[in-house]
Amino acid sequence: MIxxxxxxxALLALFTAPAAWSxxxxxxxxxxxxxxxxxxxxxxxxxxxxxxxxxxxxxxxLGKLPADLRDAPQSVTVLNKAMLQTQGATSLADALRNVPxxxxxxxxxxxxxxNINLNGFTARTDIYLDGFRDRGQYYRDTFALxxxxxxxxxxxxxxxxGSTGGVINQVLKKPSLKQATEVSASVTTNGMVRTTVxxxxxxxxxxxxxxxxxxxxxxxxxxxEMKNRDYGIAPSLKFGIGSPTEITMSAxxxxxxxxxxxxxxxxxxxxxxxxxxxFYGFTNDxxxxxxxxxxxxxxxxxxxxxxxxxxxxxxxxxxxxxETASQTLxxxxxxxxxxxxxxxxxxxPLDQLSVRLQSHDRVIHDKSLFNQTELSAKLETGxxxxxxxxxxxxxxxxYVNQAYYRNGSCNGVALNPAGGTSGYVACEPLVDPAYVxxxxxxxxxxxxxxxxxxxxxxxxxxxxxxxxxxxLVGGLRHDRYQASIGNSLNATxxxxxxxxxxxxxxxxxxxxxxxxxxxxxxxxSYYLSYSTSFNPSLEALTITTGATQPLPPExxxxxxxxxxxxxxxxxVGHGGKxxxxxxxxxxxx
Length: 589
Fold this sequence. Notes:
Blueprint: H1 6-25, H2 33-38, E1 76-80, H3 81-87, H4 92-96, E2 102-104, E3 116-118, E4 121-122, E5 127-129, E6 132-133, E7 145-152, H5 156-159, E8 166-172, E9 180-187, E10 193-202, E11 207-218, E12 228-239, E13 245-258, E14 266-267, E15 270-271, E16 286-303, E17 306-322, E18 324-333, E19 336-339, E20 354-359, E21 361-381, E22 384-407, E23 409-410, E24 413-414, E25 424-429, E26 442-465, E27 470-487, E28 502-518, E29 524-535, E30 554-567, E31 572-575, E32 584-586
Parallel strand pairs: 5-8
Antiparallel strand pairs: 1-7, 2-3, 3-4, 5-6, 7-8, 9-10, 10-11, 11-12, 12-13, 13-16, 14-15, 16-17, 17-21, 18-19, 18-20, 20-25, 21-22, 22-26, 23-24, 26-27, 27-28, 28-29, 29-30, 30-31, 30-32
């Protein structure tokens, strides 16, 4: 027996009633022969084909990579629009779950925004937007993305500092001359309502406009007190489509107003066994993020074999966080809060324990301005064909992080010593936490971290085709990276303090990439490669502790062997990668 909801039954009746009525009005047994003949419709043949390339992305948007990814001597995964839409991936984290070798973290280390590791290395500063470093601390959405490209392994020859585990590049949607409009809406069982719009409009024969927008509101998880309210818009304009000179201007504007969630505290070596939806924080906690990115690109083709590309991008990310985290477990008595001893170890019933809450408040402002100029050329030297890419990059990053703390009490006894800045704000029962606003307590000003960096780089890469089956790849990039970090704490640079008042660093480094590619057939590609990368100690522009001088950059070398195949006549593409990577970290003095 098939059971239908009232709505489904009504819809079925609505669409079947006209057909039943027409059959009753004119039946073959009673109608004249001429009328029966007239009711016979001619045969309609519909021809079409499925786009089998929809999920098989064999190209990249990056000019630094070859047009055919089989010619890249490293593992490259492209998550295109078809895959993102089919899976309903609404965030960058959702999309990256498709890529082996990636792990997604929470707020470890006090980090805000996406926390991603590539091949075991942090990708904190290795996330890119249209080929430019997108180092802001925010949660990235997919509403404005055409694809996500993941390069595995050291990539400093292509992208400069960092990139030891690889690179994640987000590709924004761009205009085309094809008229299209897509509207989507979704709702989850948690109560999250989301809608997106993507409209592309041709303006003239060689100009088009495109706009993508998103809005969502509701509970992202089942956990108590969770509620997000986000929206974004991404307009873009392109001129000269199909002409020798194309100009593209695009923007990304995103606003997040979310409830932060630090989870639960550990007890006896594991997460404490409380209700999985229990929330430890205050109802007026918040995480507000405002993102703005502006980009302009000019591409000019001097000839089919010589092209020049210049791109400028400005990023501005602001974060205002008032967050409270479940911290140490203990008991509450006349003397106030008593920490468990040994820490996080107890045989007491859970309803006799309390949790100390710690504030993690801060205001962060990340800015960057970068410009890239690239010249690509196809030429021949005898029987050898070359694809040469030469480029230069100039950029400036700045980072300001003002920390705050809330010092409160538990059972009338201060949780922080006089002059302390730990930010312990209150305590509450472990089993039945109270969902209330933060108490009115002293809010102090913590450390002010202010940092900046300048980047100058030049690079050249050549893919030499010795024959249709054999290719060699070689590239060099030289970076000059200058960074300075200042902290308001320990402004007098007190000896023995773990916080440096100021540090400066200048690094000059030349990155190398060498590779050989053998392609016995159009569906097979095998490669060997060697590449290097470097990680300056002031790379992340965050608080540095310890020595009075920054450490030398960490240097990495990688050897990789792999294969790429197109299976089932290209319907399954670039899978079956086999990689052997040896990362060697060299600390030099």
